[in-house]
Amino acid sequence: MFSxxxxxxxxxxxxxxxxxxxxxxxxxxxxxxxxxxxxxxxERLGELCVLFLHEKQIxxxxxxxxxxxxxxxxxxxxxxxxxxxxxxxxxxxIEIIVYPDEFMPRQEYRNxxxxxxxxxxxxxxxxxxxxxxxLSWASVESAWQHxxxxxxxxxxxxxxxxxxxxxxxxxxxxxxxxxxxxxxxFTHAYADLCRRARLGQAVALDVYAxxxxxxxxxxxxxxxxxxxxxxxxxxxxxxxxxxxFYRQDPLSRQLPGDWRLVR
Length: 263
Ligand SMILES: [Zn+2]
What we know:
12 helices, single chain, four-stranded mixed β-sheet, 6 strands, globular, alpha/beta, two-stranded antiparallel ribbon
């Protein structure tokens, strides 16, 4: 009953708030992972974006302002992760806060000696358990230049990881996935990356992944969507686990040869 109501409600939202085709074309053509999609997948991504923008609240911080193009850009990247998982995967929270640049949340935490300390670091993004996603617009934009890092994918991967509690690199797996396989694969790849980084060797992922298993999962997710060839070449088992987790296989999709020209 509830599911039928939700389907009806979502159909109504899609009818009442159709995507502006010009805006959609302009913004979606910036992303290589969208260029790889088939037409039906692209249509489904567009519908997910409409629902996402309806259900989530994207607020600028302070006197910063956001236009529809910026909101859609965030929605496209966030919805790419859940293209085959559904919007329910982003349940239990609604807010996305966008700062113009890197931000300093000045949050307090307990250090290893048990003393309270203030964090004076700058962040390009943060995801809070059952709370908001916070983004730096400058960092979001740099991903649009096809930079190696993608802060939106990164933070929303943390959100998926948090569906079963704190982000720890061990998200809630689907029934057809093996917990043992996931653990073995990610533990081994994490150790390998950290060892290579320590030895000063070239690494396939951003070394920020060595911060913790949670960061490894988020960085691997960025690479999975942005540079699937690279992840598959260096960590094929991680790539395979992410295919099972995201229920998508980016490598099975062709990036159009003229993609760079249409950007
Ligand atoms: Zn992170």
